[in-house]
Structure formats: structure tokens, C-alpha cells
Amino acid sequence: MTQQTSLQQRTLGTASPLTVSTLGLGCMGMSEFYGTGDEATGIATIHRALDLGVTFLDTADMYGPFTNEQLVGKAIRGRRDEVQLATKFGNERLPDGTRVGINGKPEYVRAACDASLQRLGVDHIDLYYQHRVDQSVPIEETVGAMAELVEAGKVRHLGLSEASPANIRKAHATHPITALQTEYSLFTRDLEDEILPTVRELGIGLVPYSPLGRGMLTGAITKESGAVGEGDFRRSAYFPRFAGDNLDANLALVDKVRELAAAHGCTPGQLALAWVLAQGDDVAPIPGTKRVAYLEENVGATDVDLSPADLAALEAAVPRDAVAGDRYGDMSHIDS
User: Fold this and answer.
1) Residue 125 above 90 pLDDT?
2) What whole-number distance in Å separates Cα of residue 301 and Cα of residue 15?
3) Overall pTM > 0.85
4) Cα–Cα distance list, 13 to 10, 147, 196 (Å)
5) Catalytic entry in 34, 63, 128, 184
6) Does the annotation mark 63 as catalytic?
7) How many domains does the chain have?
8) At a CB cut-off of 8 Å and minimum separation 6, what does 96 contact?
9) Where residue 47 sits, what CATH number does that domain have?
């Protein structure tokens, strides 16, 4: 019989609160971007996540494209009531994978939601994000259409991803925003300047994606083994931190995290994830994986207690501006 456990929970948002598991699961890599996906393995990982109390599941229509929502839908069939289900729209793609662009038009919002509901096989989405901000459409119009989905019962709570402070404020004034999803880790801390103070002022929760630096902070990536395997987008110019001198510099930082983790009796990934978890009770990271073993390792991070001295040592080992390379090769899709 599968061992059952239960993680603690955190609440995202104050005006439209959603209670989720302290740690979520990013499902993207089960279908695309991080090497070859395997549906059966992905479903098994989601089932194990639910058994461990990881009930906050994150997907998007563009992952696959479209196939990741179908995978998640299959995995939660019969267990829907256990899950806080998040998906996203806005990065428009064709079935063959062609990228059309960012789309925040109201008519597209409505059509995208209906398509996601069908693929997921559910009657509502718990947290519906605008995946990227469409600079050609006022965000009030996009969020206004999202608010109509709440009124229709198709969506329970609204979120934004990679939005600027100005657009976060405009969106929240249109309809309460429950969560902002953005990249946040020991390797990516720029949001601490303006974005984090903004969401905390407004009572919006934070959902960090790539809290392990796209896997680099786990210590599993070495120069000898190469950055990552074939078919993995991290090999491309889209992720400069994994190339050339940048990779060397960043792995040197990971070595320092590895040393601290050894002294703490945990893995580097657990230590890095524990740092994110320690940033506040309004923070619910969604480390992605497609394998049960890595999922179980990530869950172990919730048992790592960090003192103020531990946090300071980590931040000294990985100075905020020491990471080499932009987080994306093309930052034009990031609202700023």
C-alpha cells in the first residue's frame, strides 16, 4: 500500500485566497523542453506527489503543446478534489509546436480557457494565470476577460506570470489577483527589488518557478557530464547560464552550495529549495520534475530548517549578482 503523508499548507493571496500545499509540482518537463517525456512516468510521478501531499499542480496549454494538460488531466482523474490545479494561457502555439506569439485578447482568453478545461477533463480551474503579458493589449482588458471566467464558474482564482509592478497593480485593481508566478531562486533574485514588495503590499502570493535554477542547484549537472542531455532546451542559446564560461562560473557557485549542504546533512537541491521556502509563508514554489526520485528529494526540503545564520551563509556563498548569464537568451518576452 502506498505510504500516505501530508505536507503543510500555505495560503496564496488575501483578497481571493487559495490554500495550496507548501510545495507544488511543475509538470512542464513531463511533456517538453527537458528532454524526452514519457506519459506513464509523468502520471506515476503525479500520483506519488498526491500521495506525499504535494497537491498544487502546475501546467500550461503551451507545454507540449497541449499534451501536458492532457497528461495532468489523466493523472488526477478520480482525485480531482485533492488537487489545487493551475494552468496558464497567453503563449500561443500551434499543434505542430510553432510559436504564434503572446496573446492577451479577451476572445482568446475565453477560447483558451474552454480548451484547457476540455483537455484537463475538469469543470473548473483553481488558479488561471496569464502566462506572459501581451504588450499590445491593456492588461485591464485581459484580466477583465479572466474575471468573466470567474463569474461563469470556470475559474476560481486569477494569477499573473512574469508581470511588472505597474501591470500587477493595474490587474489587481481590475480583479483580485491571488498569485504571481515568476522565476525565483538563489540564482535569480532580481524580483526582490520591486516585484516582491509590490505583491506583498497588495496581498498577492508568490509562486516561484525554477526554484532550483533549472536543475543546476541540485548539483547533478557537471562540466564533465556536459550541461544536459540531448533534446534538452538548456543546451540552447535560450539559456545562457548553461553555456561556456557562464556554466563554469555557475558550477563554482553550486560547489559552495554543495559544501554547505553536506554540513547540513541534506542535498544541494534540498538546501536551495529550503532557502526559497524560508522566504515567507506567502511563497509556494513549484519545482518541476518528471521522476519520482527527484520529487521525493524535493519534498525532503520541507524538513530542512534554516536558521538566520544558515540563510546568511547561503546568500554569502551565492552573492546575488554573482550568477553568470541572463536567465533567458531573449528577455523581450518578460514584462518590465
Assistant:
1) yes
2) 29
3) yes
4) 10, 16, 13
5) 63
6) yes
7) 1
8) none
9) 3.20.20.100
